[in-house]
Amino acid sequence: MDLDLKILRVMRSPVGKSPALDALIKFFATWLFYLLLLVAVTSLTEGGPAHFTQTLRIFLTAVAAVIIAEIISWTLGLLLYRERPFTHLKFEPLVWMPPRWKSFPSDHTTIGFTVALTFLLLAHPLGPLFLAMAVLVGLARISAGVHYPSDVLAGALLAGVVSLAVVEAVKIYSLI
């Protein structure tokens, strides 16, 4: 059995044993992602005009990085299509997903980590919180049975490369 499958089985082992834990995994796998995005958008309302301008630049840099990362993610998904674990291994996931939707790389992880790392690289105080949220989302997506560990790892790595490249490009061209 490969490492990806072993880790998936270990992370799914608590599923179904505690309704409270299942509910927490469902929340992290689905809603924490949207909460991260909502907090990123509402960060624009904090502070005065100088803070708004700086946060808007960080936010727009994150948006540009997410667009690039998602183009790459979807290209990889088309070229390296892989079934989701619940489809391949024939079990019921904790959260609903279209069974034929790509598994590799994880879009939730790619987007969450791209936002988090862009905010971190540009020294926004919410960066560490976003990173913690992105990690929880990725782990919960594995536990929920909608991604393999390598899907999440690939999404995080893609996010890191793209975030770093976009932030460096923005700095080189004095866009921020």
- Radius of gyration from CA coordinates: 17 Å
- Give the fraction of residues assigned to helices: over 70%
Count of structural domains: 1
How much strand?
under 5%
Structural class label: mainly alpha
The assigned CATH architecture is Orthogonal Bundle
Average pLDDT: 94
Shape type: globular
CATH topology label:
Vanadium-containing Chloroperoxidase, domain 2
**Highest CATH level, the class:** Mainly Alpha
Q: Cα distance, first to last residue?
A: 48 Å
Give unreliable regions as ranges: none
Order of helices and strands: HHHHHHH
Number of strands: 0
Q: Could you describe the largest sheet, including whether it forms a barrel?
A: none
**Count of helical segments?**
7
Describe the structure.
It is a single chain. The chain is mainly alpha-helical and 176 residues long. The chain has helices at 3-12, 19-42, 49-79, 85-88, 107-121, 127-143, 149-172. It has one domain: Vanadium-containing Chloroperoxidase, domain 2 (Orthogonal Bundle). The protein is built from 7 helices and no strands. Helix 2 (19-42) packs antiparallel against helix 6 (127-143) and helix 3 packs across helix 7 (149-172). The longest helix is centred in the middle third of the chain and has 31 residues, at 49-79. It starts with a helix and ends with a helix.
List the SSEs and their pairings.
Elements lengths: L2 H10 L6 H24 L6 H31 L5 H4 L18 H15 L5 H17 L5 H24 L4
Helix pairs in contact: 2-6, 3-5, 3-7, 5-6, 5-7
